[in-house]
Give the backbone structure.
Amino acid sequence: MSWDTARRHAWHSVSPMPPQPLKITTTNDATPSQSSSSSSTKDDPSPISEIDTPEPNFLGLTTHPFSFSSMARNSIFGLSVGSITGAGFGFMDGMKTVQEDKALKTLSNKGKGSYIFNGVGRHAGGFGVFFGGYHTVKYLGRTYVDPGDWQLIIACSAVGLGGISYRPDTRKMFPYALMLIAMDSFNELYRDGPRMN
């Protein structure tokens, strides 16, 4: 039936076409050599990627592969947590000093605020450098030596707290730095439950 004839007829008189099943055809473009090579690779048990396993170093201790991005993440974490803690400590220390020091009591509110915020910045920087350095040293120790969790924490704590205790103007940071290390160590050692070594 032509189009001119069909469009003049009433639509109800036109019989619908039966639905046609959808046929999906696939073509195999691979040559016999390619198909044989693909089948041979399926049968080949050689692994594509190997899991990095710790290897012993010259001391007989296990080591892990070094990653700059992992070290940077550890350092930035320590820097940020240390800076936040230092800012809080600096604010409390500045408020206490302003209330107790006779010379600072005579300053205007603007002068007192300037003194407090200078202390906040100074302590935030000091704690940030301390805790960022602690996490950097701990990452390097785990990468190149890895004596164990407890031993690594004790060694890095001795290095970090020793650096703080060396200078008289940073010795008052010692209790807060020890608290930071204790909280971080507790989180690391017990986040998956107590370890039986």
Observations:
- The first strand starts at residue 55 and ends at 56.
- The first helix runs from residue 3 to 8.
- Residues 67-190 form one domain.
